[in-house]
TrEMBL record, chain A:
InterPro entries: AP1_sigma (IPR044733), AP_complex_ssu (IPR016635), AP_mu_sigma_su (IPR022775), Clathrin_sm-chain_CS (IPR000804), Longin-like_dom_sf (IPR011012). It comes from the Eukaryota. GO terms for molecular function: clathrin adaptor activity. This is AP complex subunit sigma. One of its GO terms (biological process) is intracellular protein transport. It is found in: Cytoplasmic vesicle membrane; Golgi apparatus; Membrane, Clathrin-coated pit. Belongs to the adaptor complexes small subunit family. The lineage of its organism: Eukaryota, Metazoa, Chordata, Craniata, Vertebrata. Keywords: Coated pit, Cytoplasmic vesicle, Golgi apparatus, Membrane, Protein transport, Transport. Pfam families: Clat_adaptor_s. The gene is AP1S3. It is a peripheral membrane protein. Adaptor protein complex 1 (AP-1) is a heterotetramer composed of two large adaptins (gamma-type subunit AP1G1 and beta-type subunit AP1B1), a medium adaptin (mu-type subunit AP1M1 or AP1M2) and a small adaptin (sigma-type subunit AP1S1 or AP1S2 or AP1S3). Residues 1-139 form the AP complex mu/sigma subunit domain.
TrEMBL record, chain B:
This is AP-3 complex subunit delta. It comes from Oreochromis niloticus (Nile tilapia). Residues 643-792 form the AP-3 complex subunit delta domain. GO terms for cellular component: AP-3 adaptor complex; axon cytoplasm; endosome membrane; Golgi membrane; presynaptic endosome; terminal bouton. Its main location: cytoplasm. Residues 724-740 have a biased composition (Basic residues). Residues 766-777 have a biased composition (Acidic residues). The keyword Thylakoid does not apply. The keyword Protein transport applies. Part of the AP-3 complex, an adaptor-related complex which is not clathrin-associated. The complex is associated with the Golgi region as well as more peripheral structures. It facilitates the budding of vesicles from the Golgi membrane and may be directly involved in trafficking to lysosomes. Involved in process of CD8+ T-cell and NK cell degranulation. In concert with the BLOC-1 complex, AP-3 is required to target cargos into vesicles assembled at cell bodies for delivery into neurites and nerve terminals.
Length: 158, 1001
């Protein structure tokens, strides 16, 4: 996999993940091409397209388009499964996920993606394990937060 | 100090957090840029504070802004600061920002090395995890080199969470720092058998990716993967493994055999479409001949991919795809245009004489229904492509084709008028028998021209009138009502047509006029002829005023001519003969190579200057003088160096060597598989919908549908009568030994054309040179090279064909052509294309037979081959062009050469152990043993080595040097043959052929 993009029906980018290092100029070009290409597709047309030497696999969930750029030898259907699995993970985490969840908690969406994919490969195929590791790191964060509040309050008391 | 912290935290309360920023942006839709620039200023302030929490918040907001397309590279150092925070919350944000914003050229990356190393060895597994995730996005060659060892240690971490991430990131490290692959590989291999499934699948992923780049090095892992494949139930992993095997099988063919069983099991058992697709793809790529057909059906649920896979199968197993014709036709109904286009591509490769009409009929229905001109035009070109491919090979009824073309003219808004027109011209000119019909159709078209002239744009449908007018004029003798057509061609409305069409109208009106005069002059009533002249004189002035030069010139010329004719007519002079002499003679199509065959007349030097050449010295003088230093006088002319013979030979050798090593140097003739090329980017063409509420139907035009029915009836009748037909018989021979004919069930070849389809031969200039000798220099080193290349590539087989004329007519201009297969190719003279036929160097009077030899290049001789071919010839009396389809059998026996062998050499050969053995039993052979041996020797080119009583050893050798040894024993009516050969496939086929010989007696 080369990249994953999430964008709205209006073409607003909601999430971007680049699995290979690219300059900002290249990234911008790809984002522009993808949004125009995907948004121009008729509803009910097929989910695969060819773009330069890459295969573009996209799927629309409610108002969000999930778009994945994979190498030409990759299995298109597997790419669709990957998109679907990611949506499932988001859904599980946010509970009936919607676009606003991703806008306001975009860093969480990234953390989930990072637990699922890494360096363009599937890291963990089990939903439970991904969820568990996300919960565990969130717990860690909460603990630190309460710690910090504690210290702040202590400081103030002094 | 405390105060400072308090101040920081109070400030923080008024800071915007990420949610505020997002909300703010959403609330400032009108002046977003302005709002964001104030936000960025705030962020800059926040980054200046010491409080890490404030900084982290700022960095988090920056990450969001970066996604919106704002440049945040100026904050790279602050990101590193946040990354190095000891608190997980901030570290996480820092690494996220880094993975989004950093790329290889970000200079602060080199500052992070130590920080990352520290995080990697953190006791907290999530610190390590976050560092690994971040690193996977921005790893550089330097980082990879410095951290490779640390990551390698992590691959054996106690926590599977870390092991998994470490394994995956190793792939990125290998890419950036390939030297790390060798030391890390053993450990990576270990991970394939890790107890944790996540780590295992990560390892499979990485090795699969590595193997795709260089499969050879990973062959040794095949048994391990095979075990994983049969034991794993994880589809994600299975897909990767199957992909890996797909890369490995080309290197190790034995693997393919082993894989068939598990793959077929998976294909039939899995419910996951993605896995099924992967299996099918691998099966196709490996070209295993397992039951691919049944799979296509299932896979076709995912239409686009199914069609894609089918086009791959079509190349190797055309039969199995043809049975899914209906399914593919259904895909034409699909809403998605890209699916429809794929289906069209497939149809092109699927047509045959039998199903052409049916397929085209379905396509015509789609043309009527199709929305959008682009797709309709695509359909139109495809129909014409399908029909006209390989010189109208599949068309059996040209009347049908003409009516299809006429029906296509009713398409509104097409841009392919020119294409249709050229097809009409081509067919009408080359198929003599169709002309009467074509002319009638074209006359109707001209009569209804007003229906076609709606689209005046270039290449629009009005182009068809160009063809119609020309055909009506040129073959006007076939017209039923020439006066009416003439009238139609001279209507005032014609003046609105494009100039080049008007020109053709005027010219052909004159031709028509000549024909009409000829017809009418026979009658006693001369007024009719004069009326026609008057009509011309009345209408032509319209064209004389045309703005188009060509039209004007022709019209005024013809007008004067007609006026003169009228004058003669009034004096009762017979003019028809002379007028029609103006257009006497038939125009025949010219072969593309005709020009080349005209010999250059003696004394004509094409290279000589006609005028004095501009003198070179003059131009040299004009060159600007060198400004600074006087330039060295250059050798204005290349010095003609005398290269001696030795040097030439050396260069030739070097070039041959270079060509052999250069994979891009194509030696063989170009392949004919352009059929399967994809049409790129069609889906991006914006589609304009055109409202077509009124169906266009031209009265009096025939519907092509009726031909489909007629054709069906005709074929039925023909099948009954077929046996009676007397035709030329041909024999296929090699070295004078006869061979049997193919007389299987009704095959493609048995469908004879409806009416005699005489494709008129393409005309060659009279003084054409007989040979195909091209203007090649015999000393050209490349030529020598080519011939040698052929000899190396495969073996040559000479086939003598005996042509026997069993008909009563004289046959001439015979052309022999064979459809090359991948394995066997007809050798054609240099410079001719892969589909050109070879001229048979003699003519055949009735009842005479003669032999011609043709050379074939054969790659592999282990399998028998059948090649399809056609013989085209001209029957002298009727000067029509006819063709005869045939099949050439290349049996394996025909590759054997009778070679004597002595018994001691024979024994040595058997003892060597290099030969594979096989045996066959023949029952009920009722002939003396020596007859039996003689039969084998005669039919299968063996020689007897030794014979003892009822036992004999025999030997033969193939043209590629395979040894074939037989031990023939007989007892009563049973004959057993034990055979040995170093090529088991060849041996099997030879034995089959021997068996067949004896089953026939």
């Amino acid at each position: 996999m080369r990249f994953m993009l999430l964008f709205s029906r209006q073409g607003k980018l909601r999430l971007q993940k680049w699995f290979t290092s690219m300059s900002d100029r290249e990234k911008k070009k790809i984002i522009r091409d993808m949004t125009t290409m995907v948004l121009a597709r008729q509803p009910r047309s097929c989910n695969f397209m060819q773009w330069k030497d890459l295969k573009i696999v996209y799927k629309r969930y409610a108002s969000l388009y999930f778009c994945l750029g994979v190498e030409s030898q990759e299995n298109e259907l597997l790419a669709l499964e990957i998109i679907h699995r990611y949506v499932e993970l988001l859904d599980k985490y946010f509970g009936n996920v919607c676009e606003l969840d991703i806008i306001f908690n975009f860093e969480k969406a990234y953390f989930i993606l990072d637990e699922f994919l890494m360096g363009g490969e599937v890291q963990e195929t089990s939903k439970q394990i991904v969820n568990r590791s996300i919960e565990a790191s969130d717990m860690l964060q909460e603990v630190r937060f309460t710690d910090m509040h504690q210290t702040l309050q202590d400081d103030r008391l002094e | 100090m405390a105060l400072k912290i308090v101040k920081g935290s109070i400030d923080r309360m008024f800071d915007k957090n990420l949610q505020d920023l997002v909300r703010g942006i959403r609330n400032h839709k009108e002046d977003e840029a302005k709002y964001i620039s104030t936000c960025i200023d705030e962020i800059k302030q926040e980054l200046k504070q010491d409080n890490i929490a404030v900084k982290a918040n700022a960095v988090c907001k920056l990450t969001y802004l970066q996604m919106l397309g704002y440049d945040v590279s100026w904050a790279a150092f602050n990101i590193v600061e946040v990354m190095s925070s000891s608190k997980f919350t901030y570290k996480r944000i820092g690494y996220l920002a880094a993975s989004q914003c950093f790329h290889e050229n970000t200079d602060v990356i080199m500052l992070t090395t130590n920080q990352i190393r520290k995080d990697l060895s953190s006791p907290n597994q999530y610190d390590t995890g976050v560092a690994l995730t971040g690193l996977s996005c921005f790893v550089t060659p330097d980082l990879a080199r410095d951290l490779a060892n640390d990551i390698m240690t992590l691959m054996s971490h106690t926590k599977p969470y870390i092991r998994k991430k470490a394994v995956l990131i190793m792939y990125k490290v290998f890419l950036k720092y390939p030297e790390s692959l060798r030391p890390a590989f053993p450990r990576l291999k270990e991970k394939l058998e890790d107890p944790d499934p996540g780590v295992q699948s990560a390892a499979v992923n990485v090795i699969c990716e590595l193997a795709r780049r260089n499969p050879k090095n990973y062959l040794s892992l095949a048994p391990l993967f095979f075990k994983l494949m049969t034991s794993s139930t994880n589809n994600w992993v299975l897909i990767k493994i199957i992909k890996l095997f797909g890369a490995l099988t080309p290197l190790e063919p034995r693997l393919g055999k082993k894989l068939i069983e598990p793959l077929t099991n998976l294909i039939h058992s899995t419910s996951a479409m993605s896995l099924l697709y992967e299996c099918v793809n691998t099966v196709i790529a490996g070209q295993y001949s397992c039951s691919v057909g049944s799979v296509c059906l299932r896979i076709s649920v995912v239409k686009y991919l199914g069609l894609l896979a089918m086009s791959k199968i079509l190349k190797t197993h055309p039969k199995s795809v043809q049975s899914h014709k209906d399914l593919i036709l259904q895909c034409l109904d699909d809403k998605d245009e890209s699916i429809r286009l794929r289906a069209l591509d497939l149809l092109y490769g699927m047509v045959s004489k039998k199903n052409l009409m049916e397929i085209v009929k379905k396509l015509m229905i789609h043309v009527d229904k199709a929305e959008g001109t682009t797709y309709r035009d695509e359909l139109l070109t495809k129909i014409i492509d399908i029909c006209s491919q390989s010189n109208y090979q599949y068309i059996t009824n040209f009347e049908w084709y003409i009516s299809i073309l006429v029906e296509l003219t009713r398409l509104e808004g097409t841009r392919h008028g020119h294409l249709i027109a050229s097809q009409m011209l081509d067919v009408a000119i080359r198929v003599k028998a169709i002309r009467a019909f074509a002319v009638a159709q074209m006359a109707t078209l001209l009569d209804n021209a007003h229906l076609l002239t709606g689209n005046m744009q270039r290449n629009g449908i009005c182009e068809v009138l160009y063809a119609a007018a020309w055909i009506c004029g040129e073959f006007s003798e076939h017209l039923e009502n020439p006066v009416q057509t003439l009238e139609a061609m001279l209507r005032p409305k014609v003046a609105t047509l494009p100039g080049h069409i008007q020109a053709v109208y005027v010219q052909n009106a004159a031709k028509l006029f000549a024909t009409i005069l000829k017809n009418q002059e026979g009658n006693t009533d001369s007024t009719a002829a004069q009326e026609t002249s008057q009509l011309m004189i009345d209408r032509l002035p319209l064209f004389v005023q045309s703005a188009n030069l060509e039209v004007q010139e022709r019209a005024s010329c013809i007008l004067q001519l007609v006026k003169y004719i009228q004058k003669l007519q009034q004096k009762d002079v017979e003019v028809a003969e002379e007028v029609s002499a103006l257009f006497a003679g038939e125009l025949n199509p010219v072969a593309p190579k005709a020009q080349k065959k005209v010999p250059v007349p003696e004394g004509l030097d094409l290279d000589a200057w006609i005028n004095e050449p501009p003198s070179e010295s003059e131009s040299e003088d004009e060159q600007p003088k060198a400004i600074f230093t006087k330039e060295e006088p250059k050798h204005s002319r290349p010095r003609h160096t005398e290269v001696d013979e030795k040097e030439l030979a050396r260069r030739r050798e070097a070039r041959k060597q270079e060509q052999a090593n250069n994979p891009f140097y194509i030696k063989a003739s170009p392949s004919s598989q352009k059929v399967y090329q994809e049409t790129p980017g069609v889906e991006h063409i914006p589609v304009v919908q055109i409202d077509l509420s009124v169906p266009l139907k031209v009265p009096g035009l025939p519907m092509s549908d009726q031909y489909v029915k007629l054709e069906e009836e005709r074929r039925q009748k023909e099948r009954a009568e077929k046996k009676k037909k007397e035709k030329k018989k041909r024999k296929e021979k090699r070295s004078g030994r006869g061979k049997k004919h193919d007389s299987g069930p009704e095959s493609e070849e048995d469908i004879t054309p409806a009416h005699v389809v005489d494709i008129v031969t393409e005309e060659m200039p009279e003084n054409a040179l007989p040979s195909d000798d091209d203007d090649k220099d015999p000393n050209d080193p490349h030529k020598v090279c080519d011939i040698q290349g052929n000899l190396q590539d495969g073996s040559q087989v000479v086939v003598s064909v005996i042509f026997e004329n069993k008909s009563d007519s004289f046959l001439k201009s015979m052309e022999f052509n064979v459809l090359d297969s991948l394995n066997s190719k007809l050798q054609r003279p240099e410079g001719s294309g892969p589909h050109d036929g070879l001229t048979v160097p003699f003519q055949l009077p009735p009842g005479v037979s003669n032999e011609a030899r043709f050379v074939f290049t054969v790659q592999s001789i282990v399998m028998p081959q059948k090649l399809k071919g056609t013989l085209t010839f001209i029957v002298k009396d009727s000067s029509t062009h006819e063709k005869l389809d045939f099949k050439l059998h290349f049996t394996c026996t025909s590759y054997l050469i009778t070679t004597p062998c002595y018994s001691d050499a024979f024994a040595k050969l058997l003892e060597s152990g290099d030969l594979k053995s096989s045996s066959v039993r023949l029952e009920g052979v009722n002939m003396p043993f020596h007859h039996l041996l003689a039969r084998i020797c005669f039919h299968h080119h063996f020689s007897v080595v030794e014979r003892i009583d009822s036992c004999a050893s025999m030997y033969s050798r193939s043209i590629q040097g395979h040894h074939v040894c037989l031990l023939v024993k007989t007892s009563g009516q049973t004959v057993s043959i034990d055979a040995k050969c170093d090529e088991p496939t060849l041996l099997g086929n030879v034995l089959d052929e021997i068996k067949q010989t004896f089953s026939q007696c």
